[in-house]
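Project standup — Tuesday

K.O.: blocked on the structure for the chain from last sprint. Re-posting the sequence here as requested.
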Amino acid sequence: MITLGFWFVVIMTIAAAVVVVGSRNLVYSAVGLFFTLFGIAGLYVFLWADFMAGVQVMVYVGGILVLILFGIMLTHRISSVNISHTGLQRSLGALVAMVILFGLTYLIQNTPWKWVAGIEPESTTYEIGTLIMTDYLLPFEVASVLLLAALIGAAVLSRKNP
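H.V.: unblocked you, prediction finished:
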């Protein structure tokens, strides 16, 4: 049953990613991105990375995707949300994607994987929280100040000039 659920999540994620890339309508691409990001969170759950799955849903689905949808819906030219240019250098992009695909396939096949059967890891959230608040407190605070500066800069840039 778990294998069936895993393959359902994989197929849903890949199909939604194809919709994101292949759709000419921005709203359809945003909905496809929604399902793609949820599928990636599902894959994190199958990898026993519960903290990363929660962060994926909160940050990407809850924050960035909603921001993208607001940007699409609040544009003044909502009647023409089709992408204006079509397939510039599509063959070059397909070639680069195929090279990356073959490289990843080669790496996956030649990696000595270690299988640990029957051991389920404990929750990783407690360990990550402890490390952030002890060993990595300074980098965490520096990143928060950097994000605050970016937020203030975005607010200043978005104001109308007097």
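K.O.: great, moving the ticket to review. The two ends are 62 Å apart (CA to CA). The chain has a mean pLDDT of 83.
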